[in-house]
Amino acid sequence: MEALYVLIPLSTVLVFLAIGVFFRASDGGQFDDLEGPALRILHDDDSPVAADDQAAG
C-alpha cells in the first residue's frame, strides 16, 4: 500500500511529461508533413550509371 504513495504521483508526472513532449513536438512542426519524406524516395532523380562508366572509373 505504501508503494502507491510513490507510484501514483510518479506516473502522474510521467503522463504530464509525455503530454508536454508531444505538444512541444507538435508546436515545433514535427507533424507538419507526414507524407512528403515517404513520397520523396519514389521520385529519385539519379540517372543510372552506364556499364562503360563503371569500368573506366
Mean pLDDT across residues = 83
Going by helix content, strand content and strand pairing, the class is: mainly alpha
Query: What's the order of the H and E elements?
Result: HHH
Oligomer designation: single chain
Helical content class: 55-70%
Please state the overall shape, judged from the principal axes of the Cα atoms.
elongated
**Residue windows where pLDDT falls under 50 for at least 5 positions:** none
**What is the rounded Rg?**
25 Å
User: Helix tally?
Assistant: 3
Number of strands: 0
What fraction of the residues are assigned to beta strands by DSSP? under 5%
Largest sheet, if any?
none
Query: What's the end-to-end separation, in Å?
Result: 73 Å
Task: Describe, in plain words, how this protein is organized in 3D.
- This protein has 57 residues and is mainly α.
- The protein has a domain at 1-26.
- It is 61% helix and 0% strand.
- The chain has three helices and no strands.
- The chain has helices spanning 4-27, 36-40, 51-56.
- It is elongated.
